[in-house]
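Design request, C-alpha cells follow.
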C-alpha cells in the first residue's frame, strides 16, 4: 500500500525558515487532516513535497513508497502517484481542461499504453457528472475565468481522473458553499481504499463533518504540535487555537 513519510523536514523560503521539523506518516487507507492558523506553513509543506523550486529543503527526509522523494523531479513525483490540489489553482490559457487531464494521465503511462480517447471521454463524463460540473468545462481553458468554487471542483476532478496514491488537498474547502462542499467531500470519499491515502489541509472543521479523518494534526510555527482523532478538530472549531498555545507555552 502507498506510504508517504516525512521526517524532521526544515524548509526555507528566501532564507526564512518556515517548516521547522515537520514530520508525518500517511499510509494507504488513511485520511489525515492538518489544521492550523494562517501563515503556519501548511501550503509551504504541500509545495515543498511536490518539489516547487522556490522552497529550499535545509534538513530532514521524505520518502514516497520507500523512495527518496526529495531526489525525485517534479514530474516523477506526479507519475509515482503523488497529487496536490493547490490552494490557489493556476489558470492556464490555451490548454483545455480535457487536454490537461488527458496528457497528465498519459504522462504516467508507457508509450503504446495511452488511454483511448473514447475511454477517456466516458471516464471524464462520468466523473464530471458526479461532481456536478457542466460538460462545457471540458473544453474551457484550464481554470480560466472559473469561480473559486469551480476551481476547487476542478482540482477534485483531476484527482478522480488521475487516481493518485497519495493526495494532498490544500484548503480544498475554502470558498465552497455547503452543496459544493458535499460534492467535493463525496469525491474524496469515493477515492477511499487501501490503495489511497489523503492529507486534507484545512482551516475549518466543516469539511471533516463529511470526510471523517483517521487522524487530525495541529500545525503551528512550522511543525505538528498535537495529534488526535476527529474530536480534536471539533474542539478546535469550538475553542480556537489558544488552549493549545497555552498548553504548549507558544506565544505569537
Ligand atoms: P499557510 O498555508 O499555513 O497559511 P504558508 O505556507 O502559505 O502558510 O506561509 C507560511 C509563511 O511563509 C508565511 O509567513 C508566508 O508569508 C511565507 N511565505 C509563503 N510563501 C512565500 C513566498 N513565496 N515568498 C515569501 N514568503 C512566503
Ligand atoms: Mg494561508
Ligand atoms: Mg495555505
Amino acid at each position: 500500500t502507498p506510504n508517504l513519510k516525512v521526517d524532521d523536514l526544515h524548509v526555507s523560503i528566501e532564507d526564512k525558515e518556515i517548516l521547522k521539523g515537520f514530520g508525518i506518516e500517511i499510509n494507504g487507507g488513511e485520511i489525515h487532516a492538518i489544521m492550523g492558523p494562517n501563515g503556519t506553513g501548511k501550503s509551504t509543506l504541500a509545495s515543498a513535497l511536490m518539489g516547487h523550486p522556490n522552497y529550499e529543503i535545509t534538513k530532514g527526509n521524505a520518502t514516497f513508497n520507500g523512495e527518496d522523494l526529495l531526489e525525485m523531479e517534479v514530474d516523477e513525483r506526479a507519475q509515482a502517484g503523488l497529487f496536490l490540489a493547490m490552494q490557489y489553482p493556476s489558470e492556464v490559457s490555451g490548454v483545455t481542461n480535457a487536454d490537461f487531464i488527458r496528457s497528465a494521465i498519459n504522462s504516467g503511462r508507457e508509450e503504446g499504453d495511452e488511454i483511448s480517447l473514447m475511454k477517456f471521454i466516458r471516464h471524464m463524463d462520468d466523473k464530471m457528472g458526479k461532481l456536478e460540473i457542466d460538460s462545457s468545462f471540458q473544453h474551457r481553458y484550464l481554470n480560466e475565468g472559473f469561480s473559486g468554487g469551480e476551481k476547487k471542483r476542478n482540482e477534485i476532478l483531476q484527482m478522480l481522473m488521475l487516481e493518485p496514491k497519495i493526495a494532498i488537498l490544500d484548503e480544498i474547502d475554502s470558498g465552497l458553499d455547503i452543496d459544493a462542499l458535499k460534492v467535493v467531500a463525496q469525491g474524496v470519499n469515493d477515492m477511499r481504499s487501501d490503495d489511497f491515502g489523503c492529507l486534507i489541509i484545512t482551516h475549518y472543521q466543516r469539511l471533516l463533518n463529511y470526510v471523517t479523518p483517521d487522524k487530525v494534526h495541529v500545525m503551528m510555527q512550522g511543525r505538528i504540535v498535537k495529534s488526535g482523532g476527529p474530536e480534536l478538530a471539533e474542539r478546535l472549531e469550538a475553542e480556537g487555537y489558544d488552549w493549545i498555545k497555552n498548553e504548549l507555552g507558544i506565544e505569537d
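Comment from the thread starter after seeing the answer: thanks! Residues 38, 43 surround magnesium ion (ligand 2) (CB under 6 Å).
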